[in-house]
């Protein structure tokens, strides 16, 4: 196991990753999503799997900060991009003032949690 921690998190929210050769280059979407969501929960955010029965292409996860603000993350396997339908849905949410991020790596996801989840929720 390899343990990583970003310095700004005020709670015990270390991320544990299985160390394999070139692990950062061939992670699957599920691995990235699980690692980032575990990290966010450890930092005090609520994390929900987001699905909408009548709307396709919504982001994968909704994150709720302690101050009630929300943001979404669409997870992709390393190097993958959102589909055109996902891009349209992300833009629709952004046009309504919602933060939407596309993440294809664990460290990128951790930085988003640090920047938009933890630091702004704990001024």
Main sheet: strand order: 3-4-5-6
Shape: globular
CATH class: Alpha Beta
Number of separate strands:
6
Mean pLDDT: 82
Helix and strand element order? EEHEEEHEH
User: Distance between termini?
Assistant: 32 Å
How would you characterize the overall build of this protein?
The chain is α+β, with helices and mostly antiparallel strands and 123 residues long. The chain has one domain (2-121): Trna Endonuclease, Chain: A, domain 1. Helices cover 34% and strands 20% of the residues. It contains 3 helices and 6 strands, in the order E-E-H-E-E-E-H-E-H. The chain has helices at residues 29-42, 84-95, 106-121, and strands at 2-4, 15-17, 46-49, 61-64, 70-75, 99-103. The chain has a 4-stranded mixed beta sheet with strand order 3-4-5-6, sandwiched between helices. The chain has a two-stranded antiparallel ribbon with strand order 1-2. Helix 1 packs parallel to helix 3. The longest helix has 16 residues, at 106-121. The protein is globular, with a radius of gyration of 14 Å. Mean pLDDT is 82; it is low at 1-8 and 14-22.
